[in-house]
Write a structure and sequence with these properties.
homopentamer, about 250 residues, alpha/beta, 8-stranded parallel barrel, two-stranded antiparallel ribbon, 10 strands, about 40% helix, about 15% strand
């Protein structure tokens, strides 16, 4: 699968903005609650992709197209309200994603959940359809649910990567445990499938840039970052610094 | 999505009458148990839409068409008898709604319920179909189930609005917690998706009109009101007063 | 929906015989265990419809057609053996019913059950298909399951009627709580949808005829009666008396 | 439905051999573990049908066809390992059965199980398809699961028969409780649907032949027998004696 | 079903490498984490088949084709994270397998699991499709779940084999309990369906080769071996010794 549309010199920096559905607007303030603010950051900061749910991709489609930032549509999602075993179901078809101008699609699988099997199977149908339509597919693989409590983060991180390879994802998005050696092993476990790291909750700049460096040195191709950019006082400045680490 | 058929100068006042399925006839008396009584209120009061389930839309179709009030068909529903986690499934297709002359369709999602995923997914299929047929879709987003007990109403109200935007609804119907500042934030969280407020249980006139004013000032486009109108001694008088607040 | 095929002067008297699946043969004796005995009662007694499951409708189709009694096929059913929340699934398609010569179809919904949503949704698909094929649909609405224990029978009876209207049934079959005033309210709650009353377990003749009179006076269009007729020593005599009350 | 292909003078003797899936090979020895041994008994003993799962019907198809014994394919099955409420799902389509040369098809329903509804519904789809293809359908009706514990075997036997009639089976296979009077009532409850009795675990010859006589006198059309024949030292001798009782 | 493409003189030696999904990369080291390392072992060692999930079959398709080792795609899979009753769902279609150049397909069924019925049914759909496309199907039959705890391994091994025959697999893959007499009985229970044995966790060479000899003497056609080969210091040497036992 050709990843040129969503990478630059083989590296990726995606601006993630699916938190509205996943966490609710508690992550937002008066500025970043507005998708147009996010689109502007992506455009000026020249991200290699921007991640939206279907609703925003539709209602702000004109603005997205005008920005020329490659659109990555998250095809499934859920709120964080339900407290049982996590399940996230398909909320947008590949066909709709194509019509909306998506350059790639994404899907989350909670491995270890009671509903792992349903998400794995739904993912596979989407993967097949996406490849038929020549779209790269990115899989968020997050170990979750009662069964994974207390398990080693090192092993879970590598397991997540390997799952992405085995099920045919083009890019795997995982959470980083902060140990560069572990990450190298995880990236190796992903074989020919590429790895990007989730930015996670907001950190101080120094810590963030150190992590970006570790990520790039591990063999991962980049980050899907959200709160660390659009919650920043000056999102374009931090973007610039991150890009410097990634592309030099 | 063009909302002209169910709004007037960008504002909306819908007469809701899906309580027969949702609560049973305990909400009704000898007068308002009759759908024709409701249709008459909507016609004379010039509501911008009337909300029925499929059964009433079929059996009273001639009367509805004659009234020229735009018909909004609720596509899912349930009784209030079952005491477990709430689930409400599709009971009418978009195709049937079109045949019955609907100007828009509606669907309820109980976020936080054990069955949230099923409703989100069913909604998306309906949304796609409705937009293909050029029908606006209104989503009732209600946080419900064991997992949401004790959560902040302020945050739930904003979360409900945001979910509506993320999943591609044209209008979101939510319950108002009574705090105008919170409502403004919720409306902002909905971005380009419009917000209408549920009327809820009957209040005294003064309180109701105060709330209508807060609603309109918040940026919401109007109300979907039921019991406060058709349980009133003089429904057309209260309607007149509400309209005055909305349209001036 | 035109109900002429299964009514006479707007009134209905259906002979119900789906107890074999619902209760087992404990309701039967050597005479009435035989479907031909039932068909004969219906024919000689000139019932306006006879209610069978698919199996009997097929195996005794020649006899049914010869009798010229309008056939009403119950499309779902279950045994009474399982002790959990009740669910009754579709066991015969509308297309099969048409081929078997049905004049109408029936379906049972247990409102309040954990599986209410599945039955409501299955009903709607059947309703749509039945109307497309010009067949009236009768819905048995029975409140059941742990959630309805201890609820007021008066309210449940009216709720059952209202559900029938809201979901688009042509006729609702309910159980009568024995209070004529409550029944009037229930019938009123059904709006344009017609109401028939289930005969229930065998009563003495006097009590039965008193109930028939109350039923007719309430605005209901008639009864779906089984055990009170075919368990009677002289089924045609009691039929004659019932008809006298209904049609005068 | 014409039953001539699997009966002789209106009577039936089926050789059942679906125990490999249902119980595992513990029922077998070095001789009868081999399907060819069973086919030979059926051929020489001139059974009116032989019951196999799809796997054996495929792998031994040449031998089955050569034997000219009518093939009855069991369309569903399960192991006896899982200890919860029983469910047995379709494992072979009617279309496959036709291609394999089946003269009839079979299906098991565990009435009273938590999954009764799923099996009833799956049966109906199969029944419709089988009749469209002109194949008789035999239903194994076995009351099972926590809900039937302690219930009267007499009533369950009659209920099983009645279910077979109500859902449209051509032949019902039940287990015999050993009381001839109860069996007569059960057969009567089946109406026009024919009844065959399961042979069950191995008995001494005298007891077995006494039961065969009771079965035939009850109005049932015969037996589906397995272990009592192919576990016997001399299967053809016992077969001969059984046939003598059935056909005289 | 012709097995020539994945056997040599009627015997089979498959290199299994689906552990990445089933166990995570904990089974791997820096060398064998790379699918190309495995492909090389298979090519030089002349295995009669190599077992991959869809993801690896796609991303390493060129290398696999170049190696000319027959590709066997495992069509279902799961992680080992979830701790409840095991279920493994289809993650690749037969059609995709054909496009990827598969010579056969595989599927795992956990008999005794709460979800046994779902896997049996999914298997059957795959079996039908595979045979239509002329592909042999291998079934992994593993007794698992709470219900099988404490059961005799001898009986479970034979039961697993018999299930494979009854459901129409061409080859059954089982785990060996280490008792040659038990294995002979298990192989006999499989009838015309062939048996291969899973290699399991790494053993010392002597023990392994003794088991291979027992396996071949039992009538099984070979092994599907993974860790005992690719975790070995010198995989080609152990392969050579295994092949010597199998083919002499």
């Amino acid at each position: 699968m050709n990843l040129n549309k969503i990478t630059k010199k083989g590296k990726a920096l995606f601006l993630a903005y699916d938190q509205g559905l996943e966490h609710g607007p508690t992550d937002f303030n008066n500025r970043n609650v507005d998708p147009n603010y996010i689109i502007k950051i992506a455009r000026v900061g020249k991200f290699t992709g921007i991640v939206f749910q279907k609703g925003i991709s539709e209602k702000y489609n004109k603005e997205i197209k005008k920005s020329k930032i490659p659109l990555i549509i998250k095809l499934n999602g859920k709120t964080n309200l339900f407290k049982g075993e996590p399940i996230s179901k398909q909320l947008c078809t590949v066909e709709e994603a194509v019509k909306l101008g998506a350059a790639a699609v994404g899907y989350t699988i909670y491995i270890g959940s009671n509903y792992e099997d349903e998400m794995l199977q739904e993912f596979e149908n989407i993967q097949r359809e996406a490849h038929r339509k020549n779209l790269p597919i990115i899989v968020w693989v997050y170990p979750r649910g009662k069964s994974v409590l207390g398990k080693s983060k090192k092993e879970l991180m590598a397991y997540a990567c390997r799952v992405g390879l085995e099920i045919g994802a083009d890019i795997i998005k995982i959470q980083y445990n902060g140990n560069p050696k572990n990450l190298k092993w995880a990236v190796k476990s992903a074989g020919k499938t590429k790895v990007v790291i989730a930015g996670g909750i907001k950190k101080n700049e120094k810590e963030l840039l150190k992590q970006v460096e570790e990520i790039i040195n591990s063999g991962a191709i980049g980050l899907a970052i959200g709160r660390n950019v659009w919650q920043a006082e000056k999102p374009l400045e931090i973007t610039k610094k991150i890009k410097k680490v990634i592309w030099g």
